[in-house]
Amino acid sequence: TLDFHPTGRHFLQIPGPSPVPDRILRAMSLPTIDHRGPEFGVLGLRVIQGIQQIFQTKQPVIIYPASGTGAWEAALANTLSPGDHVLMYETGHFATLWQKMATRLGVKTEFLGLPGVEGWRRGVQAHLIEERLKADKEHSIKAVCVVHNETSTGATSNILAVRRAIDAAKHPALLMVDTISGLASAEYKHDEWGVDVTVSGSQKGLMLPPGISFNAVSPKAIEASKHAKLPKAFWAWDEIIEMNKGGYWPYTPNTNLLYGLAEACDMLLDPTFGGLQGTFARHQRWAEGVRSAVKAWGLEIQCVEAASYSPVLTGVIMPEGVDADAVRKLIYERFDLSLGTGLGKVKGRMFRIGHLGDCNDLTLMAALSGCEMGLKLAGVKLAGSGVAAAMEYFAGHPVQLPMKK
Ligand code: PLP
User: Fold this and answer.
1) Whether the model pTM is above 0.90
2) 352 is in an annotated binding site
3) How far is residue 309's CA from residue 122's CA, in Å, rounded to a whole number?
4) Distance (Å) from CA 168 to ligand 1 centroid
5) Which among 217, 292, 326, 391 has most CB atoms closer than 10 A?
6) CA-210 nearest atom, ligand 1
7) Looking at this predicted complex, what is its ipTM?
8) Non-local CB neighbours of 225 within 8 Å, separated by 6+ positions
9) 348 Cβ inside 6 Å of ligand 1
């Protein structure tokens, strides 16, 4: 009982999985090859070198045939022992899920943050981490875990500020960061920011289907993994790092997704389109255009800190009494447009517009049109036309490619 005709493209406007470009779909359609053969080693080395550039690291990046949740577990299982004390920070639903996972694995978690939903409207407050670490005189805290781009709210945290907070406290804790929805969309520097383990996934900025995920590691994290006592076998870094030297894995890797990953790295790093810096600039621009629409509608953005606005997604709060999921359902059924649901503490209060990966001005204009039509049909009073505001923004802010300068 859907109202749309089954023609044209579905508008997958959730903050991941993001639409997979045809170029990547074609690359993945090649025949699966022998994962122990010589051709595979070439592919393996190519994707490892490509993904290192995306993480901006020279250190090993482990690729798992798993969703992001698997890579979360890998980060914890490789570095920690049962009963270890870990400081985690509540930015939203995904930070909460990671904290629950750590607890289930037998780690003692301390969940820092602002009360109620206050913390769900901002990035990590690094000074709170610094204060807490300074009070930990015996260095009982073994790791600090934060989410870089909180997909449930649309707030991006300043990871360098967290690094500096740990350093200011002269604390030896490992820094572990989830940038599952930030990588290849928001600026991220694994080495320069001194991150020990970075967790990411395939289905967001990398424009791939779900199914592979990553741990970028530091020498300090590798050292910790030699003494860490949480059980680990499939997730253990040591054998994978060893076999990756030749471009192979100790088990059967996700060959066709690796074809896609090689293609995605080529696309994202292509200097013709500004390379990684061009990728970050594109996302900032799309985000600004989408926010101009939300502001023109007179609706509130979930993130209240302009410095933490996410380049990946925008959370839109519904007026009191409007069920955000009912609006989403109407938009899906009428216009074949998927928007992200409110998660956890903000369920029913807001929806999320993804503006990541394989987008352009016109796909975003179409998505905003779907939102505006749906909001009106749902009886939401709008202050003005968000579509008109976004058109003004995009038309008035041409893409600045390095080659055009
Ligand atoms: N962390 C963040 C920030 C996410 O956005 C997601 C998924 O959306 C996850 C973790 C979980 O990843 P997955 O669903 O791939 O297991």
Assistant:
1) yes
2) yes
3) 8
4) 30
5) 217
6) 15
7) 0.99
8) 78, 79, 217, 236, 237, 238
9) no
Ligand 1 pocket: which of 124, 179, 181, 213 to mutate (most atoms <8 Å of CB)?
A: 181
Domains of the chain: 11-19+272-404 (3.90.1150.10), 22-269 (3.40.640.10)
Distance 400 CA to ligand 1 centre (A): 31
| CB 56, CB 190: distance < 8 Å | yes
DSSP track, 22-65: HHHHHHHTSPP--TTSHHHHHHHHHHHHHHHHHHT-SS-EEEES
Query: What are the beta bridge partners of residue 235?
Result: none
The DSSP secondary structure of 297-360, one letter per residue, reads HTPEES---GGGB-SSEEEEEPPTT--HHHHHHHHHHHH-EE-BPP-GGGTTTEEEEE--SS--
Tell me, using a 6 A CB cutoff, whether residue 340 lines ligand 1. no
Q: Say if residue 17 is preceded by a cis peptide, omega within 30 of 0.
A: yes
Assess whether pLDDT exceeds 50 at residue 308.
yes
Pocket flag, ligand 1, residue 180 (CB < 6 Å):
yes
CA-CA distance, 391 to 310, in Å (whole number)?
20
Residue 378 CB coordination number (10 Å):
17
Give the pLDDT score at 4: 67
